[in-house]
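User: Fold this; tokens only.

Assistant: Input:
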Amino acid sequence: PTPADIMPESEAESPCYIRLLVSDTPGVLRDVAGVLADNGISIAQVIQKNPRRKEREAMLEATDGPISVPLIIMTHRAPMAGVAKAMKHLAAAPYVHQPPVQYRVLEKQS
């Protein structure tokens, strides 16, 4: 058998799952969407879970700043080189409280 030619990750395109822990403040979703757009990434779906009232109250008592909430994003097919740049940018953003989690979503070939 001959070895398969494998496309470098940076040249691939794929939908992605992205999970961020972000500040629960106005404008954060806009900022995240802007970083993705600047890197050629289109959002397919967004989910932001709001903590229950008791959880929220406990979080507010435990911190003097904004609380953190998970932000889940599914993208349309995106260039992986752009995704890598966006993740690096988001990891350094002051409104992101943990390193971003990102997975490629494999598409079924027809």
